[in-house]
Design goal:
The protein is an all-alpha fold. It has one domain (21-44, 60-286): MetI-like (MetI-like fold, Orthogonal Bundle). Helices cover 71% and strands 0% of the residues. The protein has 12 helices and no strands. Helix 10 (195-231) packs parallel to helix 11 (243-252). Residues 1-15 have low confidence and may be disordered.
Amino acid sequence: MADIAQTAPQSGPAHRRRPLPLRLVLSGTWLLVVLICAVFAPFIAPHDPLAQDLLLERLPPFWMAGSEPGYYLGTDGLGRDVLSRIIYGARIALTVAFVAATAACVIGSALGLIAGYYRGFVDQIVSRIVDIWMSFPPVLFAILLVAVIGTGLHSVILAIIVIDWIRFCRVVRAETFVQVKLDYVDSARVAGFSRLTILIREVFPNTLPTIVALLSLEMGIAVIVEAILSFVNLSISTDDPTWGGMIAEGRTIIYFAWWVLVFPLIALFLTVLAFGQFGEGLKDRFDPVLQ
């Protein structure tokens, strides 16, 4: 009896509580660092990202010979501090990620839920629109849109929304098809709930883990698209620091100042990777099926 009394508490809720996945912790930590840099850039950046000093051009990082105190990651071809420009570039990257991805998520998920639940004529219309949209190459379509409506941050965000809502629509529609066939939906119908109530109160919460994972992935894609548009000089002004613009500049002087290319490329890679892993980690941790 004593052994049973000692082992019984282990089967309680505290014992069944799963720890946070490691990738969720690591990716969330990196995204938090990037968010802090973006919000508090004026206080964190050691120098003005637009300040030029040709006497300080192409200074190497602090651990290399010829570096200058205070320029921890070196300077570019115009003597601008690389670290400060990366920190300020996080503002543009996260602004595009949060605004564009969230808007695309809301539009695409709403259409996907409606099409997947009501089916029939509504599903046919939404599916045909998605098929037409998918016939355009995404990156080329984004470049075309920005070229037509003009460069600028608002144009980049609008281009991403117009292109990427179909990704949410397709995935959420397929997930809704699966959820509608489950027993809990039949039970809600028997209980007398209306179709709209079932969609909002029953189906939507069970598709939310998939939507969250896809939203996080889309934020990483939005960061990449903004970097590509900056690389080809179709984003915001070339004077403003963006990771894509820094990569484009570093490509031309890579043999003389490799750090101008490498450090913003690392920041871009880690941020995109963190968004993807963060979404998958959230799905693994909070998916009601896994719970």
